[in-house]
Amino acid sequence: AETCGEVSALASPRSSLHLRAATSSSSSVPQLTLEDGVHAAEQVIKKSRFIGYAKQCDNWGDAQEFISAVKDEHPKARHWCFGWVAGHNPVQERASDDGEPTGTAGAPILGGIKGEDLSDTACVVVRYFGGVKLGAGGLIRAYGGTARLVLREAPKKVLIPKS
Fold first, then answer.
1. Angle of helix 135-153 relative to helix 106-115, nearest 10 degrees?
2. What is the tens place of the pLDDT at every residue in 65-74?
3. Which DSSP string corresponds to 91-116?
4. Selecting from 2.40.50.840, 3.40.50.720, 3.30.230.30, 3.90.70.10, what CATH number does the domain 48-155 have?
5. Going by DSSP bridges, is the β-strand pair 3-4/92-96 parallel, antiparallel, or unpaired?
6. Pairing of the two strands 16-19 and 118-119
7. What is the reported pTM?
8. Ranges of each domain in the chain
């Protein structure tokens, strides 16, 4: 695939969206100091604090560095769950529940990325446990909702396929 400026072209007949850099919309969310291009959003659900971070990452190495930077920024958090989608034909994707029950964190985050029709995107949701158990359904809604919140607030750039 060719590249056009900062945006990698997809070999697909349909356009896709690409996450672009932005600053945090909430002053209470810690800023990642290691990297630019990070967008953040936060919500509190039943005393648990969920902070979502999203960044354009077109390869797994960049995504791993981003996830490590988020972990370093929040060393006292209970969970750092993520989803990552990149490429086209084949699409690469990875997700992690990081200790939450299977399928309650990584899959909803991945679903949020795919649901927003994004590519080359990593999203990490950090959870500070507030003492109230949310149950499987509550965790799915919390992680997926936080991921969608940050992804919807982030500016996007349309990828135009080139040959």
1. 40
2. 999 999 999 9
3. -EEEEE-TTSSTTSSHHHHHHHHHHT
4. 3.30.230.30
5. unpaired
6. parallel
7. 0.76
8. 48-155
